[in-house]
Amino acid sequence: MNGIIKTLKEQGFGFISREGETKDLFFHSKDLNGVTFEELREGDAVTFEVSQGEKGAFATNVQRA
């Protein structure tokens, strides 16, 4: 899937906005692939996979597009 980094929190997580979806998708720095959390910027285009956890959907395998 494709999305845009909407927000980054210094605690090591952030949210991705997805076209056609009203709710932003959570991601954690441990779910990044090929990029570090420090390299990401709000507005960066990313690709990712969606997984389901006990708190709902979240992004995994997050990479710069």
TrEMBL record:
SUPFAM superfamilies: Nucleic acid-binding proteins (SSF50249). Pfam families: CSD. CDD domains: CSP_CDS. GO terms for molecular function: nucleic acid binding. Residues 1-64 form the CSD domain. It comes from Candidatus Nomurabacteria bacterium RIFCSPLOWO2_01_FULL_33_17. This is Cold-shock protein. SMART domains: CSP. Keywords: Cytoplasm. GO terms for cellular component: cytoplasm. Its main location: cytoplasm. It is found in: Cytoplasm. It comes from the Bacteria.
